[in-house]
Design a protein that fits this description.
about 80 residues, alpha+beta, NE0471 N-terminal domain-like, three-stranded antiparallel β-sheet, 7 strands, about 40% strand, globular
């Protein structure tokens, strides 16, 4: 499983994901916001309060997480 070295919230409900191997991907999470579990992230303060747990990212107050592999496959290589 891949690990995340750093995570940075961007505009438009995107995350810059820097993986331990140096790969940088941009993951667009806007599609997740249509699901009831992820609706609280529509508030940018909640979205930006993401924490990096290496094998996954987490929004602790909302009890939400996404795995590093999900972000890897969802993300597009940063140009």
């Amino acid at each position: 499983m891949r690990t995340i070295a750093a995570i940075k919230p961007l505009n438009g409900y995107q995350l810059e994901c820097i993986f331990e191997d140096g790969t940088i991907k941009i993951a667009d999470l806007s599609g997740f916001l249509n699901t009831p579990a992820f609706t609280p992230l529509m508030d940018k303060r909640n979205f930006n309060n993401v924490s990096n747990e290496k094998y996954f990212i987490e929004w602790k107050e909302q009890e939400l997480d996404l795995s590093s592999d999900t972000l890897w496959h969802l993300g597009k290589n940063k140009e």
